[in-house]
Amino acid sequence: MSETAIQRAAGLSCFDAPTGIEVLGGGITNVNLRVRDGGRSYVVRLGNDIPEHGVMRWNELALSRAAAGAGLSPAVVHHEPGVLVLDFIEARTFTPEDVRDPANLPRITDLIARAHRALGPGLTAPVLAFWPFQVNRSYVARLMTDGTAHQALLPGMLADCDALEAATGPVRMVIGHNDLLAANLLDDGERLWLIDWEYGGYNSPLFDLAGLASNNALTEAQERELLDRYPTTDPERDWRAFQAMKCASLMRETLWSMASEIHSELDFDYAAYTAENLGRLTAALDDFKKLQG
């Protein structure tokens, strides 16, 4: 797969004499490569639509352009079916430990808030909505049809999904990133960048905040700091909705991995990733149910 990807990147019309093509680590949905050409470096993202995950590349393109226009993400250089070429940013990729660093969490919170303010007004093309409860129900329906080793868990997850949606209540809508893993945050030494918009779309701002918390194991004190700094409007109601969204985020990551166990051809241990996220989801649901009384 790597050799085929390198050949694909080398033949793109946007390059004159590409050299030093290398596969970048970290991708669990796409194949990502670094390409040097004309004294500059680029990232080539190779990946078609992924219907089982709701990934539509036209949506990723529209949001990548808007995020670049807002100064949040690298510039889009070229696109064609199955290909997105971006400027390469010389930067360090964050880890969960970096996200939890007290020096970084306020910077990340401000970056998320800036994205939520800037992206809607900057859009010039239609984009998808990403309602996590509908996303999770769609995963369950597909897993029931396609077959999964986790079939016995699905009815309970549907019931939990309904309870979490009810607890979330009314929301305001922003353009969210919706996949706030640490690896989608870059630090160039002066500023942060937010990359990978394949799941982006209209959502509650609380989902990004909750996703950041659940994906990076923030403490309760850090979660409250996150909501205080963002800021939200009704602290008590938003805290309950945040906790519901945190569970929804973990459920989405778990179901995403279950689906990837069946459909993905990438070399990644999805079964272990499912088990990891299922354990975190179970713990988060226990905490949420205690909060609900």
From TrEMBL:
Protein's GO biological process: phosphatidylethanolamine biosynthetic process
A GO MF term: ethanolamine kinase activity
Matching Pfam families: Choline_kinase
Keywords: Kinase, Transferase
UniProt name for this protein: Choline kinase
Annotated GO CC locations: cytoplasm
High-level lineage: Bacteria, Pseudomonadati, Pseudomonadota, Alphaproteobacteria, Rhodobacterales
Species, as recorded: Seohaeicola zhoushanensis
Keyword field contains Kinase: yes
Keyword Phosphoprotein: no
InterPro entries per the UniProt record, alphabetical: Kinase-like_dom_sf (IPR011009)
